Amino acid sequence: MTVTSAMKGLYPATYDTLTDVILNGNWAAYAGKIATLGLVSGDDPTLNYVQIPMDSTQFEDGKFTQDDYKAMVAAMFSGELTVSNDISKAASDFATVITVDDQGAIKG
Question: CA-CA distance, 54 to 6, in Å (whole number)?
């Protein structure tokens, strides 16, 4: 089992945008626009706006490793692997649904 929680890279998105708006005077480039932030690197997953934290994720050898995650991110970045944003589908339409229950504190 791999234990993790996805995180959003709010710091780089906020810092980069505010730097561009305030220091470079580029407000017009952002005003009234919606931005979807996701992958910006296939080589270094820690640069992406949405990521699995590399330091705190408990990867399990033989199941899903950090190298597996890096390969998956690279495949997504290159377009070889795509993620659907179709919200009309139920999880059971494309995956095995499992029930997770609270097992109490995990070592650590």
Answer: 10
Q: What is the pLDDT of residues 13-71, one digit of tens each?
A: 788 889 999 999 999 998 998 877 788 899 999 888 888 888 888 888 888 889 999 99
Amino acid at 40: V
* Rounded-to-integer distance, Cα 10 and Cα 49, Å: 7
Helix (H, G, I), strand (E, B) or coil at 65: coil
Q: Kind and range of the H or E element at 50?
A: strand 50-51
Quote the CA–CA distance of 55 and 52 in Å, as a whole number: 9
Chain mean position to CA 108: 24
Q: Where are the domains of the chain?
A: 7-93
CA-closest candidate to residue 66, choices 74, 96, 37: 74
